[in-house]
Design brief:
It contains 11 helices and 10 strands. With about 325 residues, the protein is α/β, with parallel strands linked by helices. The chain folds into 2 domains: about 160 residues, D-Maltodextrin-Binding Protein, domain 2 (3-Layer(aba) Sandwich), CATH 3.40.190; about 120 residues, Periplasmic binding protein-like II (D-Maltodextrin-Binding Protein, domain 2, 3-Layer(aba) Sandwich), CATH 3.40.190. Strands 1, 2, 3, 4, 5, 6, 7, 8, 9 and 10 form a 10-stranded mixed β-sheet that branches. Helix 2 packs antiparallel against helix 10 and helix 4 runs parallel beside helix 11. The chain starts with a helix and ends in a 7-residue tail after the last helix.
Length: about 325
């Protein structure tokens, strides 16, 4: 066989192998897809992922199984995915404190950016300050005044590092003492708000929305510089005397490290099709979810930007390890 024919057969073989590899990468899913939510059931992230799973039921040839693996601020469930096979059948949905945790926790078993593959930004996560209707304050301004007159008596519930930081940053700027009270998810936090066991708390719009028709919960403020479309009557902090306060998070889907780009693209296109559906859009609106679908590259940029923000906050002493 002459050199030209050998080169031709070699190129054809390489091309065939590449085609087989790409076909394997995009032939997804070939078995049930396990989506790990590293937080307790009934919280905002869990509700969102289950809504996505419901929308995919008639789209995927395999089940979309949500698995709650709560603990250690999301670290326990996230570590499961960081060690999983990169075949697209084990995925992770986290909130933005996935990045913040390394500045909030004493140690981490993985790198939040390097040890995961970005798949899709899903939503913007505006936090809302909620309080029971029986509390002696009905606005952020009156809550801060009450907290100043009663040091340590107005605790603010939180469910992860971001809501904890928002509550403590608000207290720091206002010069008041408001202890942080940690919850495993937004469901239990909201239940205690409704029952009157917890004075106030920062949680997602998704966690707060189901309780707004009870008349037993008030939204005192949002965490951002613009009003939320889901709670348009809730003032922003700047309207209540706390200037330049604009903190929000996101919810995103990640995979194990070293996932093939073709496979990531296949999964992202599947998620995009779900988000484009009118029925799904209406469900997100009813749930109080602000869709913010972005590709893997934009998610990676957001994670890297957040890492710089939290690194600076940590250096300034505004975030301390637990």
């Amino acid at each position: 066989m002459n050199m030209e024919r050998r080169a031709l057969f070699g190129a054809l073989a390489a091309s065939a192998l590449t085609g087989v590899t790409q076909a394997q990468d995009t032939a997804w899913p070939t078995k049930p897809v396990r989506v790990v939510v590293p937080y307790a059931a009934s919280g905002g992230t869990d509700i969102l992922v289950r809504a996505i799973g419901d929308a995919m039921r008639n789209t995927l040839p395999q089940p979309f199984i949500v698995e709650n693996r709560a603990g250690a601020a999301g670290v326990i469930g996230s570590e499961v995915v960081a060690r999983a096979e990169p075949d697209g059948h084990t995925l992770l949905v986290v909130v933005s404190t996935h990045v913040m945790n390394k500045y909030h926790l004493p140690s981490m078993p993985y790198d939040a950016i390097r040890d995961f593959t970005p798949v899709a930004m899903l939503t913007r996560n505006t936090m809302v300050l909620v309080a029971g209707a029986n509390q002696p304050f009905d606005s952020l301004t009156s809550m801060l005044a009450y907290a100043k007159a009663n040091p340590g008596k107005v605790g603010t519930g939180s469910t992860e590092a971001l809501s904890s930081f928002i509550g403590q940053e608000m207290a720091r700027r206002a010069g008041v003492e408001m202890p942080d009270i940690a919850y495993r998810s937004g469901g239990p936090l909201m239940n205690d708000i409704v029952a009157g066991h917890l004075p106030s708390g920062w949680t997602s719009t998704v966690s707060a929305m189901p309780h707004m028709q009870t008349g037993r919960v008030r939204v005192l403020a949002v965490s951002t510089g613009t009003r939320s479309p889901f709670f348009p009557d809730a003032p922003i902090p700047a309207e209540q005397g706390v200037r330049d306060f604009d903190l929000s998070g996101w919810v995103a889907m990640l995979g194990p490290p070293r996932m093939a780009p073709a496979l990531v693209d296949r999964i992202h296109r599947t998620i995009s099709a779900v988000f484009a559906g009118e029925t799904f859009k209406k469900r997100l609106l009813a749930l109080g979810v602000e869709a913010d679908l972005r590709p893997p590259s934009a998610l990676l940029e957001a994670m890297q930007r957040d890492d710089r923000i939290w690194e600076a906050a940590s250096a300034a002493g505004h975030i301390r390890p637990q």
